[in-house]
Automatic annotation (TrEMBL):
Keywords: Disulfide bond, Glycoprotein, Lipid-binding, Pyrrolidone carboxylic acid, Secreted, Signal, Transport
Gene Ontology MF annotations: lipid binding
Iron listed as a keyword: no
Signal peptide annotation: 1-20
The protein's name in its UniProt record: Apolipoprotein D
Length: 190
């Protein structure tokens, strides 16, 4: 039984490493989250992210809309290299009412269990820091996004978001910037 678990862990490690996911040794950290999500709805621009297998484009946006108490609609969009717009629709549900900024997000076209979506920091008007982590035996799979209400973000705010990630045990140097150039991203506004 132990050998089978080692094989599964090694296989998972190889698959995740090959697909540029942020797979790290150890259990997920438990950072603090924001106390409310009510003003969180609306459009956010992706400024930086930990690389993922499922996001291949630039000009990323996330639009959140209220659906019902404890449930937020999700529309993620990105511009692919071929000029087409990729999008996915889903919903984020509050996992426990005492922690409204810890959500589980699921997407209609992806047959997988819901993933963690935790709002670690946000002033709701200019910036947001989102983190997600899932444990897989001896390893954890991490996701992080730095979002802004505008396509740009001040260096000071960006550094503040990176400091919060670092304090939570996430290496912000692994994050990649998202191209939000107005001309390049123009097809997203048509």
């Amino acid at each position: 039984k132990m050998k089978a678990m080692q094989v599964i862990s090694l296989t998972l490690l190889c698959v995740m490493a090959a697909s540029a996911q942020m797979l790290r040794f150890g259990k997920c950290p438990k950072p603090l989250c924001r106390p409310t999500l009510i003003p969180y709805v609306g459009k956010w621009y992706e400024i930086m992210k930990l690389p993922t297998q499922f996001q291949k484009g630039e000009c990323g946006t996330a639009t959140y809309s209220p659906k019902s108490p404890g449930v937020i609609g999700v529309l993620n969009r990105e511009l692919l290299k071929d000029g087409s717009i990729n999008f996915i629709v889903g919903s984020a549900k509050v996992k426990h009412p005492s922690e409204p900024a810890k959500l589980e997000v699921s997407f209609t076209d992806i047959p997988s269990p819901p993933g963690p979506y935790w709002v670690l920091s946000s002033d709701y008007e200019t910036h947001s820091l989102v983190y997600g982590c899932s444990d897989f035996g001896l390893f954890r799979l991490e996701f992080a996004w730095i979002l802004s209400r505008e396509p740009t973000m001040s260096e000071e705010t960006l550094q503040s978001m990176q400091s919060i990630l670092s304090a939570a045990g996430v290496n912000p140097e692994k994050m990649v910037a998202t191209n939000q150039d107005e001309t390049y991203c123009a097809p997203m506004n048509q």
